[in-house]
């Protein structure tokens, strides 16, 4: 007797959930109206270190202009680290950034900034 009552209440709960209208159910794939779509951004960069010199090429395949800067960290404590001036990489444009240390290069990276255009 007790098994049939618990089975009946479980069946009633399942029927209630199944009877919800389609509009009442949430769908995570639907975005809120007016929500900004994620924008693809950022130039693709490749760096080459030759001795103490660094050359980086950045290509921007996206429609938004990317401000790129080359940062070089030198290995020796007395060698000055360098940060290049910002260069605008427009849509479908490739830019070249260069820099150097007096001796060895420890690390190289490129920073990106969305430019308002």
Your description of this structure?
The protein is mainly beta. It contains one helix and seven strands; from the N terminus they run αβββββββ. Strand 3 and strand 4 form a beta hairpin. The longest helix is centred in the N-terminal third of the chain and has 17 residues. The radius of gyration is 28 Å and the shape is elongated. About 8% of the residues have low confidence.
Task: Outline the secondary-structure elements.
Elements: H1 2-18, E1 44-50, E2 53-60, E3 66-74, E4 82-83, E5 87-89, E6 93-100, E7 105-114
Antiparallel strand pairs: 1-2, 2-6, 3-4, 3-5, 3-7
**Strand tally:** 7
Mean pLDDT: 81
Q: What is the chain-wise order of helices and strands?
A: HEEEEEEE
Q: Could you give the distance between the termini?
A: 74 Å
Fraction of residues in helices? 10-25%
What's the main sheet like?
Answer: 4 strands, antiparallel
Anisotropy-based shape? elongated
Put simply, the count of helices is: 1
Low-pLDDT stretches are 22-30
Concise description?
It is built from 1 helix and 7 strands. With 117 residues, it is mainly beta.
Please give a handful of descriptors for the protein shown.
mainly beta, elongated, 117 residues, three-stranded antiparallel β-sheet, four-stranded antiparallel β-sheet, 1 helix
